[in-house]
Amino acid sequence: MFIRDITELEKNSLNILKKIDVEKGGQTILNRKMKTYLLYISNLNVYGANILKQDALSIGADLAVPKGTITCSDREVDAVLIATYRQLETLAKKELAQPFGLKEVAKEFKKFLKSFKQQNFQPEIMGVLNINSDSFYSGSRFSLKDVIENSEKMIEDGASILDVGAVSSRPNSEAVSEEEEFKRISEVIDALYENRIWEKAKLSLDSYSPKVIKYALDKGFSIVNDITGLQNDEVAKLVAKYDAEVVIMHMQGTPKTMQENPQYDDVVREVYNFFVERIDKAKRVGIDEKKIILDVGIGFGKSLKHNIELLQSLKTFATFGKELLIGVSRKSVIDKVIPTPIEERLPGTLALHQKALENGASILRVHDVKEHKQMIEIWKAFHSI
């Protein structure tokens, strides 16, 4: 059984209730009745589906089920629940006492209720600082002599996190040895430390090399941005030892091979299950659950269809209760919608990142900090009027 949200975030109805001066206690009650959600439930026991259908109808909600469900012609069915926040609360309690897997359904409903309630309207900007010469976007490449100036500029423009990397992970890129990566980035790490940049913004290292990660964590870095999603046990142990934050990203294949006809039976479910496994691994080695950030890996072993499905389903991943990082900045997903040179992909980037915010993202990894700061402030204004 697997449940996903298929509703995008709606307008803030609570502000409307405040505007017409509804009594304070009534605001909370009515707000929960005004928002309708669609939850896609897969592999639901058919007997459980019939019970859930009746329970939903009894409180004014509904469950869309396949024909033949009432006669139990199949053992399992997929269904779509149509319910308000308040109705979902009721079903989350009611189904706990029901058989045929509905107790697990109720627990998932509670996760969704929590994630709907925790929408983050104070997103952070992660500015990209690439120290390698082959990054796919030339505007993000900085030499050692430029790195401090550009770090200060990104912070001034609105970045609260700087993500520093020395190895390109663009499609078809070649792997780089640990020694070569260390050679490229160690002086940059030293310069950021000596100039106390870590006091002005959080420093994130885009790497999965234990040697480089340890060096950075010893010199002011506090986030490990691991595109392999803690595949290396040594990296996981280092994160735990230094009590650092970690970005667990999903990638199918390697940067060299990831865009060679990526295939999934169900991309949302497979990425979700990947996070279940890697979060469990993080907990086993002692990583603080509150310091785990999730990244669905847009463009990392995904087709255009896969990328769109993941962006539309971010609320499903929000049920983990972790920060969600999205990085679509100037990526080829834009070019696949409308052919556009990398240098001209800022408008598409802003559109995709705004959609990500609406669906639950809380950190945006970007090349263009100032423009994203403006977009975020405009987006926030729509939720505060």
Give an overview of the whole structure.
The chain is an alpha/beta fold and 385 residues long. It folds into two domains: 2-117, no CATH class; 124-382, Dihydropteroate synthase-like (TIM Barrel, Alpha-Beta Barrel), CATH 3.20.20. It has helices at residues 13-19, 24-34, 46-58, 85-94, 102-117, 144-157, 178-194, 210-217, 233-241, 267-285, 304-312, 314-318, 332-337, 346-358, 369-382; strands at 2-5, 36-45, 62-64, 76-84, 124-130, 161-165, 202-206, 223-226, 245-249, 292-295, 323-326, 363-366. The strands form two sheets. The protein has an eight-stranded parallel β-barrel, surrounded by five helices. The protein has a four-stranded antiparallel beta sheet with strand order 1-2-4-3. Helix 4 packs antiparallel against helix 5 (102-117). The protein is globular and about 70 Å long.
Structural class: alpha/beta
Number of beta strands: 12
End-to-end Cα distance: 39 Å
Please state how the strands of the largest beta sheet are arranged side by side: 5-6-7-8-9-10-11-12
What do the pLDDT scores average to?
A: 90
Give the overall shape: globular
CATH topology of the largest domain: TIM Barrel
Percent helix range: 40-55%
The CATH architecture of the largest domain is Alpha-Beta Barrel
Low-confidence stretches: none
Along the chain, the helix and strand elements come as: EHHEHEEHHEHEHEHEHEHEHHEHHEH
